[in-house]
Amino acid sequence: MLNKLRPAIGRVLTPVGQAVARTGVSPNAITLIGTAGVVAGALGWFPRHSFFWGTLVITAFVLFDMLDGAVARVTGKTSKFGAFLDSTMDRVADAAIFAGLMIGLDRHGEHTLAGVALFCLVSGVVVSYAKARAEGLGYTCNVGIAERSERLVIALVAAGLDGLGLPYVLTGALWVLAVLSTVTVGQRFATVWKQAREAPVAAEPRA
Predict the structure, then answer these.
(1) 97 is in an annotated binding site
(2) Catalytic (active site) residue 94
(3) Where does Mg(2+) 1 bind (predicted)?
(4) What is residue 147's predicted lDDT score, i.e. its pLDDT?
């Protein structure tokens, strides 16, 4: 749903991207730095149950990482490899965030909620893989009530509020994310199944 805001966000980021481009930093370097910062924030603070400061660090680097596309556009350095790198690093960042939450919750004695965080991690991977695999087979799969942007916003806002001492917010958010991610996987399976019935695509070897 938040993907509908991409054009507006792109217009806002373009002037910033132009300024960053003048420093000579490449889009791929921005992607790698942003991912490294998110991983450091997630695995450096979350396992210690320092959710507020971890969220601040992660958010700063998530915002920085958003500049890679803007810099690529203004410098004309868009490439398939850049898109591949960006998507792959997004998965690494997401895994680090939910793994950090899982470890922090487990160390704090919240074992059930740590299991929910693990479920959110795995289901998020499946959500992304389902779309990538569908598009690789020639289908379209741009559906889902909880895509990456929604999942990140919910998780980070809840973690930050939990770090400020607001009770039950993170618990509720992770359970909601677990449900929404499951629904999203179902939506993508249903979409691809419908397309496969209407216009079969030549089968490829299974992974």
Answers:
(1) no
(2) no
(3) 65, 68, 86
(4) 87
39-66: pLDDT as tens digits? 999 999 999 999 999 999 999 999 888 8
Q: Which CATH architecture has domain 2-195?
A: Up-down Bundle (1.20)
Concatenated DSSP letters for 144-200?
-SS-HHHHHHHHHHHHHHHHTT-TTHHHHHHHHHHHHHHHHHHHHHHHHHHHHHHS-
Q: Say if residues 2 and 149 touch (Cβ distance below 8 Å).
A: yes
pLDDT tens, position by position, 143-153: 889 888 889 99
Q: Is 90 annotated as a binding residue?
A: yes
Entry pTM: 0.88
Provide the token pair at 43.
Answer: 């695995």
Specify the residue for token string 């079969």: 200
- The annotation status of 6 as a binding-site residue, yes or no, is no
Place of tokens 């993907």: 3
